[in-house]
Amino acid sequence: MALTFPASPPSLFLFFFFLLLFFSLSQAQVQTFTYVNEGEFGPYITENDADYRVLPPFSSPFQMCFYNTTPGEFYLALRMATRRSESTFRWVWRANPFSPVRDNATFSLRPDGDLVLANPDGKIVWSTNTANKGVVGLKIVPGGNIVLYDNKGKFVWQSFDHPTDTLLVGQSLPCQRADQAPQQE
């Protein structure tokens, strides 16, 4: 008795080709980036007369920047203003309020989906802890919320869940029990 297969080799090949195509299209690639804290400082007035370096893709009214008020100690922050030339920019969120970084520190969205701030020696100072959680990109939504999102547009992580010293419209202040110590980020 001979074995027979219902599909001929060309149709089997097409089946596997389309299966591979389907899986490759369904696996969205992370929009990775790395920015280095280097170069000239910005020319505009800022809160606390801080020196700052704007990160390229982020534009007004919210901008991601490295800033410092003490030489050699930088914070990754979101600033806000309505008009560049007439308004003082205000710092409204900080990634690393307790752990400054140095010149040449990096801010990266890694291929695994983790958003990371690291010193030049590679030591991680701050992270969203979103590795392997389906993150495909980062954006700043109009209200100033920095979000990491998945391939369906769902927020995986958002800065509004991690307030520093300023609340923006639409953001809430998380409540803590009196017997819990505050967490540093």
From TrEMBL:
<feature type="signal peptide">
    <location>
        <begin position="1"/>
        <end position="28"/>
    </location>
</feature>
<dbReference type="GO" id="GO:0051707">
    <property type="term" value="P:response to other organism"/>
</dbReference>
<keyword id="KW-0732">Signal</keyword>
<feature type="domain" description="Bulb-type lectin">
    <location>
        <begin position="30"/>
        <end position="161"/>
    </location>
</feature>
<dbReference type="Pfam" id="PF01453">
    <property type="entry name" value="B_lectin"/>
</dbReference>
<dbReference type="InterPro" id="IPR036426">
    <property type="entry name" value="Bulb-type_lectin_dom_sf"/>
</dbReference>
<dbReference type="InterPro" id="IPR001480">
    <property type="entry name" value="Bulb-type_lectin_dom"/>
</dbReference>
<protein>
    <submittedName>
        <fullName>Epidermis-specific secreted glycoprotein EP1-like</fullName>
    </submittedName>
</protein>
